[in-house]
Specification:
With about 150 residues, the protein is mostly helical. It has a domain of about 80 residues: Helix Hairpins (Orthogonal Bundle), CATH 1.10.287.1060. It has four helices and no strands. The longest helix has about 40 residues. The chain is rod-shaped. It starts with 12 loop residues before the first helix and ends with a helix.
């Protein structure tokens, strides 16, 4: 019976490269894999429309109720002529003004969201070379020769 020595084991060039990379702690060469382009789904558009409608209705409701409350507070302020009553009316007017500004801002925001959904996705590609300097020099030399 013949003794088996691991040194006599035939190795493929890939196995040799892997072992050398492991010994010298070199990152393995990563092969380039083509990236498939995926188009985003349009479900966000439907959700944003629903949210827009809901928020818009809520703001209309707040403005309407605030207007009704302001009429009642103005009547109380006229009858009592108390400074605090007029102060509360002023605060309510400020809140209603802010609610109206939010309603206008909601339209601007929705327009921005729709423009972002319409824009085509941008393709960002990062070229990364993983290998030794000798490999890089060979690659640069090949590129130089193909351009001539």
């Amino acid at each position: 019976m013949q003794d088996y020595d691991p040194i006599d084991k035939p190795l493929s060039p890939k196995d040799v490269d892997d072992k050398l990379n492991e010994v010298f702690e070199i990152a393995p060469v990563v092969e380039k894999v083509p990236v498939e382009r995926v188009t985003p789904k349009k479900t966000d558009d439907e959700d944003s429309d629903t949210d827009f409608q809901y928020t818009r209705e809520n703001l209309y409701n707040i403005i309407e109720r605030g207007s009704d409350a302001m009429e009642g507070l103005l009547e109380i302020a006229r009858e009592t002529e108390h400074p605090r009553a007029y102060e509360v009316v002023g605060q309510l007017i400020d809140k209603l003004t802010n609610a109206n500004k939010e309603l206008i801002g909601l339209h601007k925001t929705m327009q921005t969201v729709k423009e972002d959904l319409i824009k085509s996705p941008t393709n960002v590609t990062n070229a990364l070379f993983v290998g030794s300097t000798a490999d890089l020099q060979k690659l640069l030399k090949q590129n130089k020769e193909t351009k001539k």
